[in-house]
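Internal ticket - ligand job 286, NAP:
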Amino acid sequence: MPITGTTQILGIIGAPVNHSLSPVMHNAALAELGADYVYVAFPVAVDGLETAIAGFKVIGVQGFSVTIPHKQAILPLLTTVTDEAQAVGAVNTVWRTERGWAGTNTDVAGFVAPLKALKPWAGSTVVVLGNGGAARAVVAGCAHLGFKSVQVVGRRAEALAAFQRGWISSPLQPPLTVHPWEALPTLLPTADLIVNTTPLGMHTTAGQTPLATEDLALAPSRALVYDLIYTPRPTRLLALADQLGLATLDGLEMLVQQGAAALAIWLDGPAPVDTMRQALVDWLER
Ligand code: NAP
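stdout (structure tokens):
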């Protein structure tokens, strides 16, 4: 579809945003659908958020994705926030309504989708590494899946305490306990699922891992190791887990599914999930 005077604008705001894979995935989907839209990356610094959103309203931006550092800061700028986003305390998808901007969180659905496809998780135990924004979506997702125990491990006591306080007024009430990193030798033997939500092992720190082989060896053989990072593939964490015979999952499907859920909102119809996944795989393997 050529870009013309009628083409509608979608995009992603963040800082930094130039490495985002969302434009690749969404523009492939828009082309497949023949939709008269384009999806672009908008670098928006912390102090530019309010101005950018006001500008989006004026120039007719139809919807946008939200990434670091705006996922929480955008909340007061929205007219409507879904229960899901309120429960998580963060928004990653925004769309235009007659009354103003509406926001939701599709990271939860994205995180849950590949897990649901594997087996039922009710009654299981998860160990979550890290306590930032993505960890909040993971905790919400595990609550939805019926996990009986959600153990979050972090490196800063005050951030962990704040993370726990953040759930006090949430309707989800996850079965959450928080722990210092040093508790891992006690926690890992109980894990059915281990989720890395730290950036350790991303392309910028490729080769690093939040858990060494001796840590992973403490996990039961039934444990699935889920790294939210999607590049490199595999991360060092997943390569080590695989060497020990543990099942592994990377963050690509979460990225695809959260994007598909967002596109379905913007276009009010089903997203071409296979096209979105293939576009990312092709891009990462180029
Ligand atoms: P974030 O809000 O910055 O949180 C990162 C967390 O990791 C914080 O708790 C941080 O602790 C901890 N951490 C950072 N470096 C660490 C280290 N060296 N050792 C131990 N802990 C460390 O970031 P986020 O938004 O949650 O994103 C985290 C990761 O998830 C990124 O790699 C991102 O790409 C990935 N992600 C993937 C998807 C997907 O669709 N697949 C979606 C969202 C996020 P401090 O507070 O102490 O720094």
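Auto-summary: The chain has two domains: 8-105+253-284, 108-250. Residues 68, 107, 110, 130-135, 154-156, 159, 197-200, 202, 228-230, 251, 254-255, 258 surround NAP (CB under 6 Å).
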